[in-house]
């Protein structure tokens, strides 16, 4: 079998099964695991999959620059944002992550809401300027331009003094065995630190995030207390999340 044909088949198997193992592929193709690992490396370099120990997972498609992602109209993200906003009660201290789905969340906060929002996203902070009863605490640090959020040691130190009621986390990958992930190492550190400062972590996960993985692990999927998904999200995934004790909200 030609290399191009083998790679095409690998991607088809990955789309069908949600995971491929190098040893199984080598046996199926009658080739060495070294050859399969080379195929996986090359496919990963093209952004077509995410390599993990022993094989590969679907790569998250949610890795485009922020401006490009923001320009894409998505009713799913609006619905997820609306459902997330409805979870916020007056008087709460709420941490809101960066990202395009978080931007939709902020749009659905009523002007009458009295609450405190902690964020490391300049975009979220500016969007709340006209909310008269929302106090905004801005976490500073080095600006990670891809997601337009502040990261680094200064940001982690600042958030160590916060006790929040709820944290709305954005991810680029949510996989049942590989957990929650994102495309930048420092951003993964920040998300773990924010989750540790909140009584409840709610993950916002449109369908392009489900059963996908990115390079840097945030933590096990059980780091989430609740996951908000699209109405048509795969029942097998949502049931598996619920089996792990995670609440699932369909939006």
UniProtKB/TrEMBL annotation:
Entry GO MF terms: DNA binding; DNA-binding transcription factor activity
Sequence ranges assigned to domain HTH deoR-type in this UniProt record: 3-58
Domain of life: Bacteria
SUPFAM superfamilies assigned to the protein according to its UniProt record, in alphabetical order: NagB/RpiA/CoA transferase-like, Winged helix' DNA-binding domain
Annotated keywords: DNA-binding, Repressor, Transcription, Transcription regulation
Name this protein carries in UniProt: HTH-type transcriptional repressor GlcR
Taxonomic path: Bacteria, Pseudomonadati, Pseudomonadota, Betaproteobacteria, Neisseriales
């Amino acid at each position: 079998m030609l290399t191009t044909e083998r790679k095409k088949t690998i991607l088809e198997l990955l789309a069908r099964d949600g995971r491929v193992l190098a040893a199984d592929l080598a046996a199926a193709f009658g080739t060495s695991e070294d050859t399969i690992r080379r195929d996986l490396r090359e496919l990963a370099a093209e952004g077509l999959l995410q390599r993990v120990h022993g094989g590969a997972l679907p790569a998250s498609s949610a890795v485009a620059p922020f401006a490009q992602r923001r320009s894409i109209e998505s009713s799913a993200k609006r619905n997820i944002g609306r459902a997330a906003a409805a979870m916020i009660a007056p008087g709460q201290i709420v941490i809101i992550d960066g990202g395009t789905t978080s931007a939709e969340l902020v749009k659905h906060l009523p002007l009458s809401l009295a609450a405190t929002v902690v964020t490391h996203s300049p975009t979220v902070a500016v969007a709340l300027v006209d909310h008269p009863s929302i106090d905004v605490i801005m976490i500073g640090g080095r600006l990670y331009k891809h997601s337009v959020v502040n990261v680094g040691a200064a940001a982690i130190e600042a958030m160590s003094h916060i006790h929040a009621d709820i944290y709305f986390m954005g991810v680029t990958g949510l996989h049942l065995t590989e957990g929650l992930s994102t495309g930048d190492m420092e951003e993964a550190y920040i998300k773990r630190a924010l989750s540790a400062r909140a009584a409840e972590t709610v993950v916002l996960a449109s369908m392009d995030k489900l059963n996908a993985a990115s390079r840097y692990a945030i933590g096990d999927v059980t780091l989430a207390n609740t996951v908000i998904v699209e109405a048509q999200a795969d029942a097998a995934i949502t049931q598996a999340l619920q089996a792990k004790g995670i609440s699932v909200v369909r939006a």
